[in-house]
Amino acid sequence: MLEELQRRNYTTDTIRGYILAVEQFARYFRKSPELMGAEEIGQFQLHLLREKKLAVGTIALRMDALRFLYKKTLKRRDLDFDDLPLLKTPKKLPVVLSPEEVTRLIEAAPNLFYRTLLIVLYATGLRRSEVAHLKVSDIDRSLMLIHVQQGKGSRDRKLPLTQKVHEALREYWRAAKLKPRLYLFPTRQEPTEQEKPISDKTVWTACHEAALRAGLTKRIGPHTLRNASAYYTTFQSVFILKIIGAGQAQLAAVNGRYGLLAPGAAPQGD
Fold first, then answer.
1. pLDDT at 24
2. Domain match, 105 and 79 both
3. Secondary structure of 61-99 in the HEC alphabet?
4. Each residue of 173-221: pLDDT tens digit?
5. In what order do the strands lie in the sheet with 139-140?
6. Hey, how many other C-beta atoms are within 10 angstroms of the C-beta on 122?
């Protein structure tokens, strides 16, 4: 299965998730997936929902992994995944921080490393894996751009590097005892140590610790800052233009759900 996923150029995170799902499936029934079929898959789906109480989206990913295993790897023609009931995903609006809450969050960061990380997250709307893997060479000072290499969907893209974000990065660089060589936010502690990017968990910890210190009660993670960035950029808030130093609203690919949060947005029916 691993080789099949790699041949199809699936991302590292997707491969890891698919392998984990198959391992959990085999461990639950204590036998090889080759010896199982539709009945076990349905039972496993109910197990994840009722006993593990996983989110609907997480269960859907587990089912995608099993679909790939049986259809693409094992070439099983006797299974029809269309017969499995699709779990209805509840529609929820994203958590969006107010301008005051964003300021409190950034100012409450326990150190300059976390503070810079939060500023970059908010100003760019990057995903946590994307900001974790930013390289020093991705910061283009001459064109004032941030290059995102192989982001979600294995796509490259460019984002504006505003003056205030540039200044925050310069302050972070000057204060660093060990200058980053490859990754903008490395884990290296000693000069001779091999430089690696921070983990996704480190990005989440930066948000969590700052939220606790700021006394914010909302559930806050890296994606919360992405939501706020998309929301205020979409509605051209004066606040976001001020905090990130942009001269005009940045372009953002925003899903329709942010439109439901817009001032005067009409409520949707069932």
1. 95
2. no
3. HHHHHHHHHHHHHCCCCCCCHHHCCCCCCCCCCCCCCCH
4. 999 888 888 999 998 777 777 888 999 899 999 999 999 999 998 888 8
5. 139-140, 145-148, 157-160
6. 24
101 residue type, one letter = E
User: Is residue 6 pLDDT above 90, yes or no?
Assistant: no
How many Å separate Cα 18 from the centre of its chain? 17
Better-predicted residue by pLDDT, 21 or 263? 21
Per-residue confidence (pLDDT) for residue 69, from 0 to 100:
92
Q: Which residues of 200-220 are buried (b: 16+ CB within 10 A; e: fewer)?
A: bebbebbbeebbeebebeeeb
How many residues appear in the chain? 270
3-state secondary structure of 24: helix
Both tokens assigned to 32 = 């090889």
Tell me if 107 sits within 8 A of 179, measured CB to CB.
no
Cα 155 to Cα 147, 148, 266: the distances in Å are 11, 8, 34
State how far the Cα of 101 lies from the Cα of 242, in Å rounded to an integer: 15
On whether the CB atoms of residues 214 and 108 are closer than 8 A, the answer is yes
Question: Which pTM does this prediction carry?
Answer: 0.64
Residues 133 and 221 in one domain: yes
Last residue of a domain, one of 48, 83, 118: 83
**243: pLDDT strictly greater than 50:** no
Boundary residue ending a domain (27, 53, 83): 83
